[in-house]
Structure formats: C-alpha cells, structure tokens
Amino acid sequence: MKQIIRSDFSAIARWIDPNTSLLDLGCGDGEFLEYVQSIKPVQAYGVEISDTSVQACIQKGINVIQQDLEGGLALFKDRSFDTVVLSQTLQTIHETEAILGEIVRVGKQCVVSFPNFAHWSHRLSVLCGRMPVSKSLPFDWYNTPNVRVLTIADFEALASQIGLNILGRVVLHEGKEIKWGKNIFGSLAIYRVCASQ
Amino acid sequence: MTLLNTKTQSFEFTEPLSLSSGKSLSHYQLLVETYGELNASKSNAILICHALNASHHVAGVSPDSEDIGWWDNMVGPGKPVDTNQFFVIGINNLGSCFGSTGPMSINPETNKPYGSTFPVVTVEDWVRTQARVADRFGINAFAAVMGGSLGGMQSIAWGLLFPERVLNCIVIASSANLSAQNIAFNEVARNAIMSDPDFHKGDFYEFNVIPRRGLRVARMVGHITYLSDDDMAEKFGRELRRATGLSKDYLYSFETEFEVESYLRYQGDKFADYFDANTYLLITRALDYFDPAKSCGGDLSKAFEKILAKFLVVSFSTDWRFAPERSREIVKALLDNKHPVSYAEIDAPHGHDAFLLDDMRYHGVVRSYMDGILRDIERI
C-alpha cells in the first residue's frame, strides 16, 4: 500500500543526508518522518501538540515529544540537530520571529516550508473580494489553523531582516517545480536556511 | 472482572545483598505475582514497579481475598499492557509490608521483628533485588520496565544500573529526583509518625501498638498532594458533612465539619489499618534519596550517557507533586544524548493520581507504545 506522498516531502528529504539527526517540528501523525526513515537511515524525532497525532506517531514507532512550539525549543540544545524541519507549520505559529530564531539555534540547517499566499489563484480570489480557499490553503477564513499568511517575498524579506542565511529554495505547484514567476505560480515554498555566521 | 492467569510466588534469597547504605542483608524474601505466559525466548517480560503504598498485586483479583490489583485498568488481557502478549511481573519491594522482607518481618538473628534495625533501602537496592528475580525466571532482558511515580524512578534506575537488561523504560508521572518541596512533604509525614508516642522509635511491634495517629496524618498529607486543587474543589468543594435533611448551619466545633475532612480522615484510618509505619519511613526516604545525577555533579545528561533503552515518558498537566516540568527534565537529558524517547503530556484534571486512573489518551499512548515493543520482539 503506497501512500500518496505530500509534494514537499521528497523535496525536503533531498536536503537530508543519511545517518544524520533530524527534528521535525509540528510533525503531525509522523508521515514525513516515516517517509524519510523509509528511504534513508536518520535519527529522527518529532514535536507535536495534538494528543491524537502524538499517539499516531508512537503507534508508528516514531520518537515524538508532546510540546507547544509557541513555547520555544528549550528541550533542545544549540546546534544539536543536523536538520530541523518546519514543514507547513510556520503559518500556524504566532511567535514567527521567535520560532525562526529557535530553529536556527537548534539546527545546523533548517528546512522551512509554507503555502504561498501570493499564488495567482489566491490573488484573484482576493481581487474578487473573497479570501482564498485552495489546495494549498484548504480552509475558510473562520476555521483556518493558519494565523500568519505570508508570501515568498515576505519570507525572504523577514529572513534578511532577522539574519537567516538562505541556502536553497524550491517552489512547487501541485508537486511540480516552478522555475520562473515563483511568487505568482508557486503555491508551496520550501527554503533551506541556517543562522548567519 | 477479567480472568487472569495470576500466580503468586515467594522467592527466598540467601546470597547477601549489599545495600547502598553500606549495610547488607544476608537473607530475604520477595513476593512476586505474574500474569500471562513467558515466551520460549523469554523476550516478552514486563516488570511493573510499584510506588509508595502498592505491592506485587498489580492486576486481577487476589486468590485469597477480593482485592483488585492496583493497576488493573492498565494490566490484563486486552488492556494497554496486554497479558495475552506479555509476561508481566509485579514484585513487592524489599522493606514493604505486603509479604516481602521488611521491618515487620522476623530478623532470624534476634527472633524479633526488625523494626528500627531494618536497613534504609534505596531505589537502586530495589532494582538490584528485582534483577535477582529476573535471574530466577531466566529473563536476560526485560522488554520493558514500567512504573508511575516512585515506580518510574525504578524504571529510570533500571536503565542506568542494567543498561543491557532493559529494552524500554516507561516512566509515568515521575521525576529524576525530588524537589525540596517534595522532600518537605515526606518529612511532615515522617515526623507525624515518629512523633506518635506509639511509634517507640520504630520498635512498636513488641508493645503491641501501632502509631495510628501518625500514620493517619502522614496519609492525609500525602493524599492532599496526590489530588489537584480543581479535583478537590470538584469532589468536595465546601460541602458540609451532614446527614440528609439536617441543617447546613455550622456546628462551631472541631468535629468533622466539611466533606473534605471526612474524606481525609477516612483515607487516613483505612491506611493506618493496612500500612506499616516503618515501611512508610523507608519508602519516603527511598524517594528522597533517589538522584541519579548526584554522582555526575548534578548533570543528568551526563548520568544518562550509559542508557541503552528506549524511553516513554508520560506526565499529567495538573500533577503538582511530580509536575510535567520534572518529566521534561528527564526528556531533555535523554535528548541531549540522542537516546530514543517519546513524551506525552496528558491534559488530565486528577493531579498525581491520574497515573492510576483510566484515561483514554493516556492508555492509548501506552497501548501504542506497547504495540511497538511487540513489533520489536517479533522482529528479533
């Protein structure tokens, strides 16, 4: 039974070397960690707040720590993980700057992915007077877990402002890489970042 | 009630046991209860460690009485720790008053109860005796050692003393050492017992008395700390203890006035009927002394370097006796060493007592973790 792999999983996994340590923040039911561990040996931990997701991870045999990311990453030492992943979770956290500071403190490299609010379909939706509901933003304004909506340009501006080094970038739409007009045609952005030296 | 393959056994040990205190016991007996069947490769054994006032009688109904085991909602056929799959062992710890050698037992050298002469025992001492029980069963390594509160400390001590003899440590509502506040509560309890005129410096057996008043106060103090403020408010509030139809006016006396007083007095009386005062002193002292980081200058991460087992750590949000922060210290020390660990923080209203209660999320987490252990056993 082959599960459908979320389009950003394989893109993120490419940045993770075998036999390294990996921390997935907001790991949900552990699908990403299960996927990575199925293709390469890594020492992996997830962090998750939801009771049902924590149990789902434990059921899969994935190390998981139940914790609210808003509280920071006090459990984790500086540069204690080769890779920290924040996959489609940034937009659900209030303390944006704090969590970005924390992930580059803990991770030697970090991978951050988020839905791009500036995708043309979202722009069109707002132009027509309605908040967008799409595959990458599949919620109505009143029930969305997303508390921070951002675009590719927004993220890059904040990254330079708070001293994040961008090491790589992949922009996707429906699983396909977008080579040009990224902030218009891309619905999902994936960044590889680290703390600037 | 579930039908459980329950066996109570008594093991005699004549090889002297060197204790942490430097003293030794030349001869002792441990009561052991088992559930389920040990498989051919002896790889499915789970040790359940008990806390302050419990015993080897973990689950099922005692053959000789109607007593239901103290963790019957956790251990049994089809339960989170499934005795259809695992061979589960409960051991009454040394120094206890439920059949294993303790202060009430007769010292063969004097033909009198040990009383005040029974040596102080530590969590590590218990773990060493538990390992001897494992030897008797021919169990090389436990699939898991599991416990709540003081039982969780024993699980941690297993990971440290016998890294190769335990594959999983399950540590629930516990801590890597007691806080000053916790030691203070223990001291109040001990002081209540020791200042009871019937205590006779621990040798009350020969006077045919029991320091009941001290034991009652000790239990009352303990009970307050096992419940959360909200839980007490919910259970008792400011309700007055009155027969139905009687006036709700105050009595302006020091008799039992509030429901909560009646509850505490009842718990105190019940406890004084079945628990030994010297055992209470010993067990609370074992709690106080447990501190695996002590030998590493207080550095728990360093102390945990030698651990080989995987860990499951569980805490409860309203537990203020063994608060979630204390569990997170354990988790952090494991993470610092990149040891495999999962941690669940259960949002439950029942304070420290929650670890003994039935809660879907809590039992779900344990059940899922046990499934993983079973997969590992089958893989070997």
Explain this structure.
- The complex is a heterodimer of chains A (197) and B (380).
- Chain A is of the alpha/beta class and 197 residues long.
- Chain A has a domain at 7-113 and 149-172 and 190-195: Vaccinia Virus protein VP39 (Rossmann fold, 3-Layer(aba) Sandwich).
- Chain A has helices at 7-13, 31-39, 51-60, 96-106, 120-127, 152-162, 182-185, and strands at residues 21-25, 43-48, 63-66, 81-87, 107-115, 164-173, 176-177, 188-195.
- An 8-stranded mixed β-sheet of chain A has the order 3-2-1-4-5-8-6-7, sandwiched between helices.
- The mean pLDDT of chain A is 94.
- Chain B is of the alpha/beta class.
- Helices cover 34% and strands 16% of the residues of chain B.
- Chain B has 10 helices and 14 strands.
- In chain B, the strands form 4 sheets. An 8-stranded mixed β-sheet of chain B has the order 1-4-8-5-11-12-13-14, sandwiched between helices.
- In chain B, helix 9 links the parallel strand 13 and strand 14 (341-346).
- Chain B is globular and about 70 Å long.
- The two termini of chain B are 34 Å apart.
- Chain A binds chain B through residues 21, 43, 45, 51, 54-59, 61-67, 74-77, 80, and chain B through 312, 328, 331-332, 335-336, 338, 340-347, 361, 364-365, 368-369, 371-372, 375.
Give a concise summary:
The complex is a heterodimer of chains A (197) and B (380). Chain A has seven helices and eight strands, in the order αβαβαββαβααββαβ.
Write the layout of secondary structure elements.
The complex is a heterodimer of chains A (197) and B (380).
Chain A: H1 7-13, E1 21-25, H2 31-39, E2 43-48, H3 51-60, E3 63-66, E4 81-87, H4 96-106, E5 107-115, H5 120-127, H6 152-162, E6 164-173, E7 176-177, H7 182-185, E8 188-195
Chain B: E1 6-13, E2 17-18, E3 24-25, E4 28-35, E5 45-49, E6 75-76, E7 81-82, E8 87-91, E9 106-107, E10 112-113, H1 123-137, E11 144-148, H2 150-161, E12 168-172, H3 180-194, H4 212-226, H5 229-235, H6 259-274, H7 277-289, H8 300-303, E13 310-316, H9 324-336, E14 341-346, H10 360-379
Parallel strand pairs in B: 5-8, 5-11, 6-7, 11-12, 12-13, 13-14
Antiparallel strand pairs in B: 1-4, 2-3, 4-8, 9-10
Helix pairs in contact in B: 1-2, 3-4, 3-7, 4-6
